Amino acid sequence: MRVKAIIHIDMDAFYAAIEQRDNPDLKGKPVIIGADPKNGRGVVSTASYEARRYGVRSAMPISQAYRLCPHGFFLPVNGEKYKKVSQEIKDIFYKYTPLVEPIALDEAFLDLGGNVDVIHIAKEIQNKIYSETGLSASIGVSYNKFLAKLASDWKKPRGFFVIREEDVKKKVWPLPVDKIWGVGPKTKQLLLNWGITTIGCLAKSSPDLLKSKLGQHGEELRLLALGIDERPVKADSSVKSIGKETTFLHDTNDREYLKTVLLTLSENVGYRLRKNGYLCNTIMLKLRNSDFNTITRNQSLNEPTNIDQVIYETAKTLLIKNWSGEPLRLLGISTSNLLPESMRQLTFFNDDRNINLVKAIDSIRSKHGFGSIKRARVLQVKPSKGDESVNG
Ligand code: TTP
Ligand code: MG
Fold first, then answer.
1. Cβ–Cβ < 8 Å for 56, 47
2. Which stretches of 215-307 are DSSP H helices?
3. Is 388 part of a structural domain of the chain?
4. Which of the ligands is closest to the CA of residue 13?
5. pLDDT < 50: residue spans in the chain
């Protein structure tokens, strides 16, 4: 079984930390972001850790925050600024994996795949966030989402905590039940009524009892308590497809030439998939004839790929099946249903020979340019107007 490496990142006192960064006078001071206390209405969005010492919390009425900490620095929410910082942080995540699921401006899950030194990478991400934005993050490392989120909250701020499978009983079971994501005050009260106070109690509770009282939710909570959480990290990938098409200088029905163009397009798309760390699950062929009639045809793959030869063979089969033989004005390939290359271990894909060859070619191309190395067959392709596409 592949052990997943999932990390959860949550910025510390996010809005307040940004304001402290941007105004050194606020460093080390109680800073409260939210409604205007003079107005008396509205709530606290967040408070710096210095302000939390006075009992100030998110979602608390601002009037109460003012009573608790009258000498605090009260600032309004500057949403645009925080969104910009949030994007900067996301850009860092995407350097490590395309499988990033943001769940708030300051919070995201990352699936780093298997067979990686996850602790090393997670530390590097934490350091990079600090060096590039001047802000501190807490990171939780585990093998599923529930435990990774629990871990990031463990030692806030600047936390770094790992939960391994063998830690669940010792570290997680003693925690109160409401540490489980999804146990709100109501469910907590119900569980307490049945004497279920800790995550361990919940794990050992009768599945039938939980089901009868809480339905499917009861079963889900019990599984979480056992450290079982199969929810995948869902990529909020802005990149949904990578493609390349070419318009010929002269319309052509030269079958061999079209196949050669298809190979060039496949190499370009494969190279860009690999460079960006993706595999594709679907390949689309686009044909346009002299009358500008355009058709597109898709093929789903049995296993995801970023190998030129596989892309080429699939596109060629689509061409043979769907081309009437009429002269073409444009030929294009687009790949979609992208997933991170780190998921390769999840598939049965095992063609090391192919991957090693393309990686060797890639390293020459990234040093000397895409055109620096070509197959003999491709040398006959005449230059034409080509469009690369990366679509979200
Ligand atoms: P959180 O991550 O919950 O809080 P935080 O980052 O301020 O502090 P920490 O994670 O260290 O405990 O929320 C992120 C931001 O979302 C927070 O800075 C402000 C905003 N927010 C609100 O506007 N209202 C709220 O009720 C909460 C909880 C957060
Ligand atoms: Mg936070």
1. yes
2. 216-225, 255-275
3. no
4. 1
5. 1-2, 345-350
pLDDT at 327: 97
Q: Does the beta carbon of 252 lie inside 6 Å of ligand 1?
A: no
pLDDT at 345: 47
- Under DSSP, the state recorded for 270 is H
State how far the Cα of 344 lies from the Cα of 332, in Å rounded to an integer: 26
Q: Provide the residue range defining the domain that includes 188.
A: 168-225
CB burial of residue 367 (10 Å; 0-12, 13-18, 19+): exposed
Q: How many domains does the chain have?
A: 3
The domain boundary residue, chosen from 185, 201, 225: 225
Establish if 236 belongs to a structural domain. Answer: no
The tokens describing 6, both together, are 């999932």
Mutate to test the pocket of ligand 1, among 8, 10, 14 (most ligand atoms within 8 A of CB): 14
Q: What pLDDT was estimated at residue 159?
A: 98
Calculate how far, in angstroms, residue 16's C-alpha sits from the geometric centre of ligand 1.
9
- Indicate whether 200 and 139 sit together in one domain: no
Q: Is the CB of 229 under 6 A from ligand 1?
A: no
13 alpha carbon to ligand 1 midpoint, in Å? 6
pLDDT in tens, 332-370: 999 998 887 765 544 444 455 567 777 788 888 877 777
Evaluate: CB of 342 within 6 angstroms of ligand 1: no
Positions annotated as catalytic residues are: 107
| One-letter identity of residue 391 | N
- In this predicted structure, what is the pLDDT of residue 302? 87
Does ligand 1 come within 6 angstroms of the Cβ of 89? no
**pTM of this structure:** 0.67
Flag whether 385 is in a domain. no
